[in-house]
Amino acid sequence: MKDEPLITLDYRGLRCPLPVIRARKALRRVSSGSEALVTADDSSAPADFTAFCEIAGHELLGIVERDGVFEIRLRTGRKGR
To answer: What is the rounded CA–CA span in Å between residue 33 and residue 66?
Structure first.
């Protein structure tokens, strides 16, 4: 595994589909195998990011909800999707 810092993306306050759209754009610039932590408070974020990871080839590492905020951890896969 690469020794890269954790990428943090804070999308609290944004509603579907903006968190996924912004994450997709941000993750295009990082190398495959990087880990990202996305925070979002939109109730559809868990389903949206699960589908996004499947489509984009990213590995969904986990989703945790804390006080209405979802922490979505993923590892980037195929670059440029």
So the answer is: 26
The residue whose two tokens read 């984009």 is 56
Which residues are annotated as catalytic?
A: 16
- Walk me through the domains of the chain, giving residue ranges and CATH numbers: 7-75 (3.30.110.40)
Calpha distance 40→38 (Å, rounded): 7
Q: In degrees to the nearest 10, what's the CA dihedral of 28, 63, 18, 10?
A: -80
* Helix (H) / strand (E) containing 10: strand 7-10
pTM over 0.85: yes
Structure confidence by residue, pLDDT tens digits, 10-26: 999 999 999 999 999 99
Question: Which single residue is written with the structure tokens 């979505």?
Answer: 72
